[in-house]
């Protein structure tokens, strides 16, 4: 299971027992849109090759509000 924790500057990730951080600028470059408009599903696709996506995607801007 992958755990994503969002804040204003990026995302803390726990994936297969490894903890790391994806900075806001890296996410924006990878997804090619502003950080608040990126969805949790899009971030998950950066971390996992074939993620199991469930529920509606949420924009980071909504998560942080």
List the keywords.
65 residues; alpha+beta; 3 helices; 3 strands
What's the short version?
The protein has helices spanning 24-31, 40-47, 60-64; strands at residues 3-7, 10-15, 18-23. The protein is 32% helix and 26% strand.
Word description of this protein:
This protein is an alpha+beta fold. It has one domain (about 5-65). About 30% of the residues lie in helices and about 25% in strands. It has three helices and three strands; from the N terminus they run βββααα. It has helices at about 25-30, 40-45, 60-65; strands spanning about 5, 10-15, 20-25. It has a three-stranded antiparallel sheet with strand order 1-2-3. The chain is globular, with a radius of gyration of 11 Å. The protein starts with a strand and ends with a helix. The mean pLDDT is about 95.
Largest sheet: 3 strands, antiparallel
As a percent range, the share of strand residues is 25-35%
Mean pLDDT reading? 94
How do the strands line up in the largest sheet?
1-2-3
Percent of residues in helices: 25-40%
Low-confidence stretches: none
The value of Rg in angstroms is 11 Å
Domain tally: 1
> How many DSSP H or I helices?
3
């Amino acid at each position: 299971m992958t755990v994503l924790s969002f804040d204003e500057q990026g995302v803390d990730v726990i994936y297969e027992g490894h903890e790391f951080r994806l900075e806001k600028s890296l996410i924006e470059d990878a997804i090619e849109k502003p950080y608040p408009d990126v969805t949790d599903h899009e971030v998950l696709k950066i971390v996992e090759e074939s993620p199991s996506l469930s529920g509606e995607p949420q924009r980071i801007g909504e998560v942080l509000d």
